[in-house]
């Protein structure tokens, strides 16, 4: 089994309907898919790879060598202990956003400029992907965007677009620690630019862990918990994890388009239409909602505590209406 690969450029041509249907199927059955010909230039992607690797070497590697996972694993190896470490991840990570650009790595030539350019392109792609989901779900164009922006992008409650730069360095004993423990993603749409060669990311599909196979310069899309809620469960946020690997330093750059913390989420009313509605009439049946309404900021507070636990109790914990 491999993760479906979709040629995004086909949306512009004769194969539009077929491609829309493929994407709908991925959202319903997989929660993950890979986009090729997504419109982001190879030249930019090559520069992103270069600055990310350089940044790790110049500004991160020394800290990782002294980090908690390295210390814990060394202790276990020394003691010849068989236990697995379950409270940390074998990962180096930092977050880039518009709000924290004074704290971005600054000792790697071209890092800032390149990542700014990259984020502009990825944000545009995120909005396009959300519009495809609108269309596939039968929602008005821009519905998801508006729901996440709490009314409009210009207001202070705009959606949050973040970029998480991760490296998973080679691990001396990958059986004893996870690269990243299994979880679903809390937010909206996630766009991942993963390593060309070093694998490690897996999703849970029908009870089996399936590799998200590296495809050079593809962008992996996955569905966060809020799209599952908004679609009333038609689209799934699926469990995924990263395995620690004995060889190679895996790069992964995850950008996520998340609702504003003030946004009120819940199933789209248009998807709660009862069967007795007459032609052209919309009768919303609240009883069809499989998820409560809640404030996204509240969800994130619960998620911070429960990221690595099953997702269902999180929805009930934040129920307000
Ligand atoms: C995440 C995630 C996967 C990866 O950051 O939520 O799942 O490959 N990352 O780094
Ligand atoms: Ni994730």
From TrEMBL:
GO BP annotations listed: coumarin biosynthetic process; ethylene biosynthetic process; response to molecule of fungal origin
EC number of this enzyme: 1.14.17.4
Keyword set, alphabetical order: Ethylene biosynthesis, Iron, Metal-binding, Oxidoreductase, Vitamin C
Pfam families: 2OG-FeII_Oxy, DIOX_N
Catalytically driven reaction(s): 1-aminocyclopropane-1-carboxylate + L-ascorbate + O2 = ethene + L-dehydroascorbate + hydrogen cyanide + CO2 + 2 H2O
Fe2OG dioxygenase domain ranges (all copies): 155-259
GO molecular function terms noted in the UniProt entry: 1-aminocyclopropane-1-carboxylate oxidase activity; 2-oxoglutarate-dependent dioxygenase activity; L-ascorbic acid binding; metal ion binding
Signal peptide (from-to): none
Known pathway: Alkene biosynthesis; ethylene biosynthesis via S-adenosyl-L-methionine; ethylene from S-adenosyl-L-methionine: step 2/2
UniProt superkingdom: Eukaryota
Record family assignment: Belongs to the iron/ascorbate-dependent oxidoreductase family.
PANTHER family per the UniProt record, alphabetical: OXOGLUTARATE/IRON-DEPENDENT DIOXYGENASE
Protein name: aminocyclopropanecarboxylate oxidase
Native source species: Buddleja alternifolia
